[in-house]
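During the no-cost extension, the postdoctoral fellow (Dr. R.K.) reprocessed legacy sequence entries with the updated structure-token encoder. One reprocessed record is reproduced below for audit purposes.
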Amino acid sequence: MTVFPSRPTRVLAAVLALLCGALAAPARAEGRIRISEQHGVTYMLLNIAQEQKLIEKYGKRAGVDIAVEWIKLSGGPAINDALLSGSIDIASAGLGPLLTMWDRTAGKQNVKGVASLGNFPYYLVSTNPKVKSLVDLTDKDRIAVPAVSVSVQSRILQMAVAKQWGEKEYGRYDRLTQSLPHPDAAAALIAGGTEISGHFGNSPYQEQELARNPNAHIILNSYEVQGGPSSSTLLYATEKFRNENPKTYRAFTAALVEAAQFASNNPEAAADIYLRVSKSGVDRNLLLKIIKNPQVEFKVGPQNTYGMAQFLHRIGVLKKQPANWREYFFEDPAITEGS
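Re-encoded structure tokens follow.
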């Protein structure tokens, strides 16, 4: 006589089979990465990796076919929301947003830095002839930034104010700032006739403003505030994505290293790639001048980031102070040195 297992026994066996299958299978298959990018030359390494399909190349070397998606967003808050909601895997934004995410997701999503996009000086440009330096700003001035108070430009402005008037006054000029994407801010500053009289931006917008509006002039260079060349725009991700996609993650960082070497060694070709991929209307000669600026460095290791981390902790933005830069960056063979 054939003995059939009871229904509860069959159900238990099915559940155990499903559990074993779930434990054996990865939570998410390798081979997909969604990368955010913003406006500006700062994101050139991503443009190079995109056109030359470098992520796909290193993925194939690791035995993985990687589908890469590029998503254009503007401003740290929008990018951070997209990262936490799972809409993107790699965030590209300023140092301030990265540090805030590292602090707030500790013990949860554990967001950390992946790499730097290079060192670029950011200029606070004004078209107000009465404003020669930071101390000349008044309530009549309006400064465009990517995101009020939280963007890297806003944080650098706060650092500059704190140095001038003391850290209790760090937010003195927050009231003068307005959130505006870099292209729109540059258009307003170049055309004139709007309430926007300043823009704390990035390349190529700051150089376009200086070239096309005779009243435009620099009143602050980010390097002066940060104490030298600094990696103000970076890439970051959640611990979950890194752990579940090790080959894809390594392919991405390897692609960045090659893109940085390419940009450093081939400025003309890098400029052409930027123009094609970003569809920017910037003058090629002006773009080459930006790329060849001695203050611009294409590298993936972060430089001079810890000072801002200390500052944000002192003013209460970060609940905890990192011991060093490695605390808010993932370990990776591509990044052996930093600060």
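The first strand starts at residue 32 and ends at 37. Confidence is low (pLDDT under 50) at residues 1-28. The remaining legacy entries will be reprocessed before the final report is submitted.
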